[in-house]
Amino acid sequence: MTSIISTAEAFVREQMLGNDASHDWAHVDRVRNVAVRIAKREQAANPAIDLEIVELAGILHDVGDFKYSGSETAGEEMVVAFLKDQGYAADRAERVAYIVGNLSFRKELGKGAQAHAEPIELQIVQDADRLDAIGAIGVARCLTFGGAKHRTLHDPAIPALVNMTKEQYNGLKNKGTTMNHFPEKLLKLKDLMKTNTGREMAVTRHEFMLQFLDQFYAEWNGAV
């Protein structure tokens, strides 16, 4: 492990201390590990993939997260400042910071085809982050975040905003229900994967969510 990686780990562990378990160090570590796994597989077709950039961005991807900071720019600014303070090359620090500032679902809303023109390292970390948002862990994280934000679990009278804009997504904050987050975002992620490896890994996780939702609504309606 290089010194910049271990230093970044220590920095992020401290940054995550106040977060709920949906966005804690364990989440960051899973995303980092999956991102590195994806990068190594994708390198067969694209040897230029920079593994250090991928790993650093995976570790730093939730620093200054909008959901907690409320700032559009805090993540990129904090990451650039941290990396430059460590003597990391300015151009590489900017590459990592760009990934941190542009991988979210919120940022992708409205980008269209432009989202597929982003650097491959961003696409890899984005896929890894999205994989952690679906499947069994994704369900657990969704329920954890909803509870931490005191959201209503489910209310059939509140329709999901399936085709929301970035502005609507930003405005939801604590207003939506936890279960609406599935059609509003989580069920879309399988088809938003950018890498071949990410698409392959998303299939079983997506299927698990569908099974969970079938069971949840059957129990909610007293059918089982």
UniProtKB/TrEMBL annotation:
Molecular function GO labels: hydrolase activity
Gene source species: Capsaspora owczarzaki (strain ATCC 30864)
Span of domain HD/PDEase: 20-143
Signal peptide: none
Keywords: Hydrolase
Pfam family name, one: HD
PANTHER family xrefs: HD_PDEASE DOMAIN-CONTAINING PROTEIN (PTHR33594:SF1), SUPERFAMILY HYDROLASE, PUTATIVE (AFU_ORTHOLOGUE AFUA_1G03035)-RELATED (PTHR33594)
Record protein name field: Metal-dependent phosphohydrolase
CDD domains xrefs: HDc (cd00077)
